[in-house]
Amino acid sequence: MNLKCLTVVLATAFTSSLSHAQTSDMAVKEDFKPSTLNQPTQEYPQVNSQGYARFKIKAPKADSVRVSLGLGGRGGTKLVKGDDGYFTGTTEGPMDEGFHYYHLTVDGGVFNDPGTGNYYGSTRWESGIEIPAHDQDFYALKDVPHGNVQQILFPSKSTNTPGRRALVYTPPGYEKGTTRYPVLYLQHGWGEDETAWSVQGHANLIMDNLIAEGKTKPFIIVMTYGMTNNFKPGPRPVALATPGGGARPAGGFGGFPKGMLDNGFETVLTEELIPYVDAHFRTYSDKAHRAMAGLSMGGMETHAITLAKPGMFDYYALLSGGTYTPTELGKVKPKLVFMSCGSKENPTGVNSAAVALKDAGYNAVSFVSENTAHEFLTWRRSLNELAPLLFK
Amino acid sequence: MNLKCLTVVLATAFTSSLSHAQTSDMAVKEDFKPSTLNQPTQEYPQVNSQGYARFKIKAPKADSVRVSLGLGGRGGTKLVKGDDGYFTGTTEGPMDEGFHYYHLTVDGGVFNDPGTGNYYGSTRWESGIEIPAHDQDFYALKDVPHGNVQQILFPSKSTNTPGRRALVYTPPGYEKGTTRYPVLYLQHGWGEDETAWSVQGHANLIMDNLIAEGKTKPFIIVMTYGMTNNFKPGPRPVALATPGGGARPAGGFGGFPKGMLDNGFETVLTEELIPYVDAHFRTYSDKAHRAMAGLSMGGMETHAITLAKPGMFDYYALLSGGTYTPTELGKVKPKLVFMSCGSKENPTGVNSAAVALKDAGYNAVSFVSENTAHEFLTWRRSLNELAPLLFK
């Protein structure tokens, strides 16, 4: 791991996602519509065509309600109580396009916005809001053949459970065919879990659309929980299906940045999950048909595991998750090294790392997502760029 | 539909789930443990060995916090504020075993408990708590082969979406074999969605365990959203994967009890979903290998659709969802009519309906779940009883 790069990742992980491209004294257009992530029949939160977000929370006897979204340093957006018992407020500027996690502080307690859905981030189920992106078409649900996303429960002796959960995207036609497919192992970020890539990331829809347009070879994607030593008792609070038991391990915080590189996960991935997937799905099980990618902490896991197991993967991708150096790779020549981030993160870092790798004879590609930070639109776009480069 | 029975279903749907088997003046044992559904690292809510539930909510500047669980008529459980800024309280009696939905009222606003997970019920994502059942072994995660639960996105012209979501349980070994399987179409209740049976109901684990013990033939289960005219905009707030679009239909409340029998769903199920499943999974697509079951409103849908389409299903099951009469069935002789409910619902109704059907020459079975009401433990047990009777 390039420590300078890691520092940048840490520093940019929690910056404000308020767009800096527009000033806050612009006139706010009154064309607000319910966020697409809202719970059924819920009118708030809303988003306008400029990317402002407006919130409305019922709490007639509360003294204060605050939304964590907004200018980070100022504690988000303070809502104002009306005579009707509702607190309302609008972000002081447009938000970056894409998905944002948030929560409320109601009279000093942290709660979710009852108007919208819940998404696992920051090691808790957070509220979520979507600012429509100008390029959202690439992850839209379209009238194309759809792959499936299935929950598997694989036995994991190393973590003492008869069923650890992973989600597996199989491309359209998988269920009827006899073809074998390559596999991408795709990891979430710190505080997230195995649902992040298919729910917040729309990984399945991105693949469906790329495949329908002939832009990528069909392949399987496997997404699992990337931590073994913290934060994840057996039953999932919200899930496709609840796998049940699985001991909550003793011991304390094992997250990020403390205990960031979870050696236990390498065992789960390489000794338990990969063999299970190769035994239960029609995969090509050689290095040439296996990729690993991850966002943020998942990128750090990818970095560590690909270097520790040079015989397992032939495609490496770090999405807002650091860089590789020629020295680290040494004699290992993966078919592809992909590094990406948002333009509000460390574009110079990933671009210069790619140049250094190319100068040293590696096949390296960098991608910078315009006008996004350490958030999911960066990673949706990164997957959309990465997929066509895999398994060529 | 037997209207008398329907009335009973309605009347019992929202009764208290506080156990009446034990008095509230018993000594409360101080052996509380975190609920198995809690979010990672969260210590509250807790449950003791008698079934009391204890809550602890941080809201230092709030005046009042109430939990909806408890004696229904009295507005649930009022929490008391401590000097540390936390509100705490314990139900005034033991809760029924099994899963319960609930929410908080904080200074007059409705929020979820940040300590636990979220479950779709009452047309919103609610909090959930699990009171361990004495017979919970049958839905435990065990060291047995596990089936998968997969999201499919099937095109639905009748509801104007290129991808409506269903969840499909495939039994262990499905992915490697060439065998065909019978199919059970299994519906959720009012205010729930297609996630209810696998998340709250543990349908996949119940099947895994029954199959491992040789108690049931392996079969596929298909679970989809049972409403077409309300409450469900395209993107799911919390989901395995987000299918994206799908127009939110114009028009008002189309739920239960108003608009209870959603004719649009019959079209989705029989003309869109079933053909898709038969085309994409290795099913037996004849009547003899197809069952329909549902809980509560899903039972009413089952009742209506099986009678309207007598050529489609050979096994009918209503779980806390009414009864059939010999007059309704007429000359149609399904291989099985299964009717169940909790002992706190209408056991006389389902038992006497089964007697009447048997007297008239039908193969009818009734099942009463002891000491449960209109809640998920009744339906977990019902599925556990039903599955071995199917496709024999």
UniProtKB/TrEMBL annotation, chains A, B:
Keyword line: Signal
Stretch forming the signal peptide: 1-21
Gene3D superfamilies named among the record's database cross-references: alpha/beta hydrolase (3.40.50.1820), Immunoglobulins (2.60.40.10)
Alphabetical list of InterPro entries matching this protein: AB_hydrolase_fold (IPR029058), Esterase-like (IPR000801), Ig-like_fold (IPR013783), Ig_E-set (IPR014756), Mycobacterial_A85_antigen (IPR050583)
Identification of the protein by name: Esterase
Pfam families with a match to the protein in the record: Esterase (PF00756)
